[in-house]
Amino acid sequence: MKKGLTADSLEIKEFLHGLIRKMHLELESRIVGVYLHGSLAMGGFNPARSDIDLLVVTDVPVGMAEKQKLVSLFLEQSGNPFPVEVSFLNVSQLVEWKFPTPYDFHFSEYWRDRYELDVAQGTNVCLDGEEKYDIDLAAHITILNHRGICIEGRPIHEIFPTVPKADYLSSILDDYADCLEGIPEKPVYSMLNLIRVYWYLKEGEICSKKEAGVWGAENLPAKFGATVEKGLAVYTGEKMEVQFHETELKQLRDYINGKVESFGI
After folding, report:
1. How far is Cα 231 from Cα 123, in angstroms, rounded to an integer?
2. Domain residues of the chain, as ranges?
3. Which end of the chain has fewer CB atoms at under 10 Å, N or C?
């Protein structure tokens, strides 16, 4: 593994190498490369809250039988002990940039229940043969190009195209809209993502949620400092739980949204 892993990196390395070895065994398609993005690549990984974010590129499209094997593999491996979010793409999908971006297979803990239901019923509802598209991949690939790690295979710059800034912005704004509504239910995730979008618009910074929290605590008006610091403490694992008042969350949300809208968004 290349540099960029922190904290329990030995355990993470062993987990990743074991997972990748099993992916090779399950796939007839040749793996061109395995790439790490997200918090683990950017030094903000918290095993209690973070996913290991991967992009896997194959030489040809992943077939249905292979997808079924991947479902079983990730149902077994994800969360044991680290949750995994992974997307499989083939090289032909990356020759010309498309937005939203096509992909062959995706797994995350968010999809676990649906995959488990498919397995239990012997169906393939989540694995139909139609090509799928994901607006989030524009953000994932942008982060990969700027801050990512090639675990194995061809270098990042040889495989992944440059994502137009407009598509990256559309990608992060899609999640931003959910965070505006969801901040009462998911305060830590939402506030850090809102700050991340604002920082990008203000200074062009592509950052992790942890980095966004540090920047927000230092650069937002002082009245928001304590709120952001509480969220950051939970996200980094310094504290297990804190209490947020609905008013402080809404005030922070409305302040950031006003600043974001001032950019013409």
Report:
1. 41
2. 9-162, 166-261
3. C
CB-count exposure of residue 70 (10 Å: 0-12, 13-18, 19+) = buried
Whole-number Å distance between alpha carbons of 71 and 172: 27
136-149 confidence digits (pLDDT tens) = 999 999 999 999 99
How much is the average pLDDT of 124-133?
84
Q: What is the pTM of this model?
A: 0.94
Q: Tokens 């990256």, residue?
A: 168
Using alpha carbons, select from 153, 156, 158 the residue that is nearest to residue 30: 153
Contacts made by residues 246-249, CB under 8 angstroms, sequence distance 24+: 246/184, 248/224, 249/183, 249/184, 249/187, 249/191
- Could you read off the pLDDT of 183-196 as tens digits, one per residue? 999 999 999 999 99
What is d(CA 112, CA 71) in angstroms, rounded to the nearest whole number?
Answer: 9
Report d(CA 194, CA 197) in Å as an integer.
5
Q: How many CA atoms lie within 13 A of 103 on its CB side?
A: 22
